[in-house]
Amino acid sequence: MTGAEMFDAIAYIDEDLIDRCLAVKAVNAVGKAIDGAAPSPERRRRWLPYAALAAVLVLAFAIAAALRLGQKSPKPDEFPGTDTGTEAPEATSEPTPEPTEEAKEYVESPELAAMALDSLEYGKDYIALYEQFGQGLGLGEVMEDENGLAYIERDGKKYELGLDFLSKAMVYNAFPSGGYATPDEAYAGWWRYYVTRYNYLLPHLPLYRFEQYTAYNALIKGTEDTPVTVYRTQAEALIYWTSEKEDGSITLSAPSYYMDVLRQPGFNLNHDHLSTVNELCSLANGLALASRDGHGNVIWDPTVVEEHAISANADGAFTLRIKVRSGLRLSDGSPVTARSYLAMPVVCMTPVYEAAVETQTERHSANPNRTPGGPDFIPADEPFRAYEGGEGGGVLRSIRLVDDMTIEFTLPAEIAENYTLPAWFIDFTAQPADAWLCGAELKDDGEGVYLTPDFYERDGEGFKHAGELLGLCSDHSTEALGKHAWSGAYIPTEAQLDESGRIMGMTFKKNPYYNGNFEGVKPSIETVVYADTDVSDQFVDIAEGRLDVLTGWATSAVRNILEAVEASDGALTCTHYSRPVNTGYFFRADLGAAQFASVRRALAYCLEREEYMQDFTGGYGSVPDGPFCSDFCAYELASGRGLNFTDYGTSLEKAIAELEADGWVWGENGESYTEGVRYKRIPAELVSGRDRGFASLDGSVKGYEKDGYFYMPLVINLLTSLGSEYPDLDWVGEERANVFKAGFHAEFFYDQLTALLDELHERNTYGLYNGAPKYNLFKLADSCTGSVFDRHDLHTIDPELYDSRDYFSTLYLKDYADIYMMEP
Amino acid sequence: MDIGKRIAAARTAAGLTQQELGERVFVSRDLVSKWEAGARRPDLAMLQSIAEALSVPPDTIITREECVFAELQRCLPHGEPVPRERLSALISRFLRERPEKDADLFIRRYYLLKTNREIAEFYGMPENQVRSRLSKTAKKLEKFLKEELAK
Fold first, then answer.
1. Which residues of A touch B88 (CB under 8 A)?
2. Helices vs strands, H then E, count in chain A
3. Residue A583 and residue A531: Cα distance in Å, rounded?
4. What would the DSSP string read from start to end of A88-105?
């Protein structure tokens, strides 16, 4: 059967079903008023649990249903999915009934186990190794082999621990065990095994990472002890500094862009964010329930949270109870209560707020931290969201106002089961509740919070309070800034706005009531000025004292900063850190040759990454070993036990050795390899339609079947976006290059970013994906500051979870070590 | 623009009434009206006939991508073709046994051919939750059909 037959069959389903469906009324307001109510793919959070299906994997799953071990492999024209309009290159087929002795030889690469899963049933034939052995396992039971890879022994058998196992263990098994005395040490222990395996399997080949340099006026003290780092923005760091300038102030340059919504800090603040974003907001809005410490940990802020408790509910949901400390104050001296944390998120879920910001959509959409419709963890079927006007908005069951100082959140099972730390998305800041509530009340009669009906009061077609809310969020005139209280370390007191009301500069004064950051530290510097400086003049500005801190990372910026520091004769100081962004090659590790670690490692050995890094960064950078930064809390602890990453320095010999050991030793006609493109023999029944259809971009190199084996070609198709024409791509298609000499066929294609995204995610968001993946390598950048390395969604072997992912991620790697085969 | 509106636009451009288009493709004026209102959806052969009757390329009415064949394929167990009537009856039965919301999402996506975003906006749901629920329904349908067809 085909999709087309299904399409037609659905056209004739019972009409009463259709009529029933058509009778359903559209849900008004929330989610409709603003384009992008649901998170766009590009803004998908790593933690998002129910993050939907991989539309792209449709083909793979259809093939999975079709292929069964022991069955005859489908011919190309029988592949499910060929009715999608995809013209998959034909693989040649020369069936021979009895394979020769020689033809029976093939290298049993461990990845073949992962390829075989398509024909097996999760839960019946196999499960994740973590499910079998992970629960309660302590690090004391874990051993490591000669490559530093973790394994355990059970019943005399050795089981390597895969990436899925290790990423889960970091969250659930970070308890003292063996020589790991504290939870932090245990976390770092699991993390060390994870990054070691990541480096070994190499789903992503980093090319380079810039160093970020920051210059400081030497009259600003404390910068050496508490510098700007990956995990500490200027706004977070300056609380620790003092100013010996005459006026006791500090002047900072504008971030790369200014926030234009000072009062709306957003929800689920992305703790992976780069250091220059969100500066003004975090200065003015503070006392968040959760914070980052200076090492990448997300913590319940001890200055703010007196008690917190998490309980698992029978339905799989989590309930979090948080008690806010008494004695916290807003900038006008008024007390902070539970309402201070709930007013903003609740109001943001109402049609009144949506109406307020409707006219500001364009400006708001420029704010990367804004999540329309409230926090993402509130289920979509909450009656509160279904408000249709006139009678109040219903009760928000997911949030409880237990008493004046206690809040309860219920996180649905879909989120809870994703092993995510709740603090990540309940990092609300304290806000002036009265301002957000516009005179209405936030109540809870025992079932959940709600807003009193006067909040929804109508004004003709609109809402009476929409204008107030708009002013609260968007009016940054000096007069408006003083109208309501703030909770951050500093209070904005004076704004320089452009004609459209955008913030171009701002002056902040110390908040006298601020209770301190997560360490209880209060600011010393009286005045913070964010100045609207011309980028091209910044180096002069800092040299001449008009600017006190300047940060930069591009080669020329770094040189300018270093020159300014050197010429300052001690008037300027400098610190630097590795930027948490890796630019590099991301393998589609389940397509063609790229699904074999030997191939990924061989490509790494072929490339001249050190040279590329020097080219791009001017020497102010490094070649990373993996998706982490050395400022990360676990790094130092893990380093103490030794981080022995594989040295992928350029070596054609090592590349060839990797390939030969893994069976890439066949030629284009089934003969032993001598020259040209290498092929690998794989039992034909294991090979999916995706792999059979995968060929070089020019169509000249494709797989073929012979004697019961599929001969997979060593083909790398690289896609990079336009504007990325850098010399690191010299290796593609060049006969002089190592990749050619090693036996690869490598091609690349430049395309628009939209086309790249469609290919990357194997979905047709921009109408540029034709239904079958053509590329198994992408050149991209990826941030890597994540404090919690729970990446199990990128490594799961459970089809349920795999299927529920929002879209294909190139970071995905199905680790063979995570497969535990059940007894028949 | 949805399919119904495209049919209406192409019909108007061709200078036909709903009655006249119905006569050309051998259906009632009422059904044409329902197509155009988005209350019913033609099958592939009918879409082809409509395009021919209106002298427009089939892509004018519906693109191959909009037919979501690839997504539908995941609902299908591997095996021999099944008579259309039986398959339709089985799908109807399956949808009756599903929670109403899941059945409605399925119908909006695969009968009315709405995009996930349109559905999300209609129900006030996050788009990813729409996809997730559709995905689960598709898997259950595949299992259901597999079991029923094996009987």
1. 9-13
2. 27, 33
3. 31
4. PPPPEEE--SS--TGGG-
CA distances from A217 to A152, A228, A334, A540 (A): 53, 14, 36, 13
Nearest to A304 by CA among A318, A320, A321, A286: A286
Q: Considering CB atoms only, which of A4, A20, A30 is closest to B124?
A: A30
| Closest chain A residue by Cα to residue B72 | A3
Decide if B121 and A10 are in contact by the 8 Å CB cutoff.
Answer: no
Q: Which residues of A touch B91 (CB under 8 A)?
A: 9-10, 13
Structure tokens at A73: 């492999």
Residues forming a β-bridge with A796: none
Amino acid at A350: T
- B42 contacts in A (CB within 8 Å)? 11
Q: Which residues make beta-bridge pairs with A252?
A: A530, A549
Are residues B65 and A37, on separate chains, in Cβ contact within 8 Å? no
Angle of helix A3-10 versus helix B84-97 axis, rounded to 10: 70
Interface test with A, best of B31, B78, B82 (most A CBs within 10 A): B78
If we measure between CA atoms, which residue out of A603, A580, A579, A578 comes closest to residue A203?
A: A603
Contacts of B39 in chain A (CB under 8 A): 18-19, 22
The answer to whether A429 and A337 have CB atoms below 8 angstroms apart is no
Tell me the mean pLDDT in the region A521-545. 87
Residues B62-80 pLDDT 10s: 876 777 777 787 777 776 7
What is the C-alpha to C-alpha distance for residues A662 and A656, in angstroms, rounded to an integer? 10
Interface test with A, best of B41, B128, B139, B147 (most A CBs within 10 A): B128
Question: What is B3-63's CATH number?
Answer: 1.10.260.40
> Quick count: other Cβ atoms within 10 Å of Cβ B65?
16
Select from A18, A26, A52 the Cβ nearest to the Cβ of B131: A52
Of A807 and A569, which is predicted with more confidence?
A569
Model confidence over A737-775: pLDDT tens digits? 899 999 999 998 888 777 887 888 777 777 788 778 899
pLDDT in tens, A37-92: 222 222 222 222 222 222 222 222 222 323 222 232 222 232 223 233 333 333 43
Residues of chain B with CATH 1.10.260.40: 3-63
DSSP state of A74: P
> Using the beta-carbon criterion (under 8 Å), do A5 and B71 form an inter-chain contact?
no
Q: Which two tokens stand for residue A556?
A: 């020329």
How far is A801 from A122, CA to CA, in rounded Å? Answer: 11
Q: What is the mean pLDDT of residues B31-45?
A: 85
**CATH (residue range B68-150):** 1.10.10.10
Ordered by where they begin, the domains of chain A are 165-208+588-821 (3.10.105.10), 220-547 (3.40.190)
Beta strand residue intervals within A370-457, DSSP E? 399-403, 406-411, 442-444, 449-451
Q: pLDDT per residue over A118-138, tens digit each?
A: 888 888 899 999 999 998 999
Average pLDDT over residues A232-248: 93
Judged by phi (left if over 0) then psi (alpha if -120 to 50, else beta), residue A278 lies in left
CA dihedral A630, A631, A636, A642 (to 10 degrees): -10
